[in-house]
Amino acid sequence: MRVNFPISNFKSQIISMSTIEEFSGYSPTWCPGCGDWGIGAALKKALVDLNYSPSNVLVVFGIGCSGNMNDFLNAYAIHSLHGRALPNAIGMKIAQHDKPVIAIVGDGDCYGEGGNHFMHACRGNHDITVIVHDNSVYGLTTGQVAPTAQKGFKSKSTPGGIIELPLNPLTLAVSQGATFISQGFAGRVPDLIELIKKAIQHRGFSLVNILQPCVTFNKVNTYEYYREKAYDLPQDWNTGNFEEAMKKCAEPTSIEKFPLGVIYQVEKPTFTDELPQLKEKTLFQRDRFTDLDSLLGEFE
Amino acid sequence: MQSLLWKIGGEAGFGIMTTGLDFAKIATRQGYQIAGYMEYPSLIRGGHNTYEIHISVDKLHSSKYHIDVLVCLNKETFDLYKKRLSPDSIVFYDKEMFEITDQNITALHLPLKETLKNENAPVFMMNTITIGASMAVFNWPLEVHHAMIEKTFGKKGEEVVSINKKMSQIGYDYVKQHYPDKSFPAFQARKTDDTNLVMTGNDAFSLGALIGDCRLYSAYPMTPTSTVLTRMAEYAEKVGIVVRHAEDEISVINTALGSAFAGVRSSVGTSGGGFALMTESLSFAGVAEIPVVIFLGQRPGPATGMPTWTEQGDLLFAVHAGHGEFPKIVLAPGNLEEMYSLTAEAFNLADRYQTPVIVISDKHVNESIWSTSKIALKLFSKSYEVDRGKIASEFSNLQSQISNYKRYQFASDGISPMLIPGLQGHFYQANSYEHIEDGHTTELSKSRVQQVNKRNKKEITYLKNHFKGPEIIGDINTSDVVFVSWGSNKGSILDAMQLLKEVGKTTSLIHFTHLFPLDEKAIQKVFKLKKRYILIENNSHGQFGRLLRQQTGIDIEEKLLKYDGRQIFREEIIDYLKIEM
């Protein structure tokens, strides 16, 4: 359960134990071996472990192979436009901040098309969990290069190799004020379950950047590649040090190493915490404002 | 209709806006109706600002050409507006700033600079002196101005209040002493039963949104709707709504779609450029069937255009905005009363039809001011009922018994029950992809056709149940000329009709508020008589004319179009008809 929830009069939404089957929608259509399978399984297990049911989680799906989870995961959900999942998630949270809000997005979706929203969602410390399927390609449109692809990556849209440097979502998130920054690997599902649980339980903006091999269109960032380049953060890693987090987050760029685990986590008031009008009830549950008369004096 | 026009002009940044608004409130406190508007460049300092207030006993709808009192805080004001003066006009100026040599003009010197120097007062207090002087020529009690000073400057402390009062007194005394014969005896203070409020169209939108139970307002600042954002932000904590000033207009509308999905009435405000950024998401709202109210304040485009001026150039863009085919409702208020009532109604329509509703307006109605009855506003607020249609948080409220809930269930009226997320034992997705009844994605031809037909039915249901035909003002049967228009042009047309009536010329107006979709049969009936119809629009394409022809086959050949960034004035309509007044 989420801890330290500041609102005293919310009734608990938790009913009896849920199951993975309850969260399971259609059978996934992802390619055999795709990293998304592991992410989908880990997310469902995390929600069950946290005792949520499909009726008390709010989810937004972006557009891409990741967003196609819309039909595979049961929840009150929006299948959004490409790039726009985060502002939808922010709106959902503002309206019903007693429920967890999860955004399922891809790297092209969230860091490319929706890059502006990502930066500003970090700044606002909106209490949403952003799960990014980071595979460095646009899988659904058959493998064009995505913003996290390494320099020189050859794809249909960059036959000579990509000229731009890869975007580093981790340093971007730290610098823009995100309060929970983590990285997982789709090939390590048990760890992913724990990471997603921690992210959902965190109060504030939480990022789970998941290194997700695309077996069809990315022949560089494979399972083998990440098994070699990714490593677990030490047990005693201090998640509260901004400068150290910044250095750690820079490793994919600086030394081509990928730290796994919670890199940075601090407690700060969330966007809705800062709104006194939401202290007692959610925006949805509030009574309608009717005292129009009290506003008219200044027009006389 | 007896009326006076008071106008003040000066350098931008010197408090002209506050002064104009205060003078308008003073006039209503004396029992008068007002219509006022301001002109300002897209600059913070250095340009030229003006505010004019048209004052009358009777309800006023627009400004007028002839200026009765011109307050010049610099020479530019005089040079720009002397053409609108007559020998009866009073011009306040300071001969230390410039000379007026024209003997045909009643130029009254006020020692503005000298007073500032003597009293060691800041330059923007020149305005206060001129209001004091204006109180004197209107024969209005100076206490009314002093009460306004306390209201406007009270927060800034006693010292600011007392020096302003002193400035006001100096202006008043100077006129009484030096120009005792200059006054307007017909405009004495008068008693009225109703209190008149002075507000902008943006204020009326904000109040209408609150009446309509809007709980989330999201926006990115853009003239001419920025003052809705600031007004709603000012109210937010007190009234219990949330205002999000998002990073861009794409985030603005998607925030609203997220909160609307989660059960909260949501609205966004913008102008043409910001609306352009929203259009992909407008289409998303259409297919996912998420209710949202979009406030579009037009200004002259294309692109950045003329940001602080007015035009009705985005009507066809609004009507056709968004890729793909989906239902959409476009409403256009033409004055304050229509603004608050149609805005509140827009929230009911968005919910009933679970689709975007656009409230289209323009800078003239957004930022100009009028007086409006407080009693009428309160009555409207009391009588307004929130109708969420088939949106509910529990099945008992969904107007149908559903065991297996389907978000996009077929319905003869096109409207499926919308369950607000949270009910235990249920879940669904609002899908931007084409979907089957339960919300899952589909590419099957049969399902596609079923859902398209379902959404299209909403338009038919709307036309049957909630479309309102145009308001007809005056008697078409006896009119020589029938004006056809929409939006803020209404004010000038009504005032022109009144003047024409005074010289024995009968005209009428067909004023549209529910612009899209249009009911072909109902509207054809309105135009059944052979008349001289004149389309009046504040754009160069005659966009409503094109829409009317597209939707109903009615073609209005004669057009009075204006597109210089200024609203249409009543005199321009009379001039167009070549009628001597």
Automatic annotation (TrEMBL), chain B:
<dbReference type="InterPro" id="IPR050722">
    <property type="entry name" value="Pyruvate:ferred/Flavod_OxRd"/>
</dbReference>
<dbReference type="InterPro" id="IPR002880">
    <property type="entry name" value="Pyrv_Fd/Flavodoxin_OxRdtase_N"/>
</dbReference>
<dbReference type="Pfam" id="PF01558">
    <property type="entry name" value="POR"/>
</dbReference>
<dbReference type="InterPro" id="IPR022367">
    <property type="entry name" value="2-oxoacid/accept_OxRdtase_asu"/>
</dbReference>
<dbReference type="GO" id="GO:0016903">
    <property type="term" value="F:oxidoreductase activity, acting on the aldehyde or oxo group of donors"/>
</dbReference>
<dbReference type="Pfam" id="PF01855">
    <property type="entry name" value="POR_N"/>
</dbReference>
<dbReference type="InterPro" id="IPR002869">
    <property type="entry name" value="Pyrv_flavodox_OxRed_cen"/>
</dbReference>
<protein>
    <recommendedName>
        <fullName>2-oxoacid:ferredoxin oxidoreductase subunit alpha</fullName>
    </recommendedName>
</protein>
<feature type="domain" description="Pyruvate flavodoxin/ferredoxin oxidoreductase pyrimidine binding">
    <location>
        <begin position="208"/>
        <end position="453"/>
    </location>
</feature>
<feature type="domain" description="Pyruvate/ketoisovalerate oxidoreductase catalytic">
    <location>
        <begin position="13"/>
        <end position="173"/>
    </location>
</feature>
<dbReference type="GO" id="GO:0006979">
    <property type="term" value="P:response to oxidative stress"/>
</dbReference>
<dbReference type="InterPro" id="IPR019752">
    <property type="entry name" value="Pyrv/ketoisovalerate_OxRed_cat"/>
</dbReference>
<dbReference type="InterPro" id="IPR009014">
    <property type="entry name" value="Transketo_C/PFOR_II"/>
</dbReference>
<keyword id="KW-0560">Oxidoreductase</keyword>
<dbReference type="InterPro" id="IPR029061">
    <property type="entry name" value="THDP-binding"/>
</dbReference>
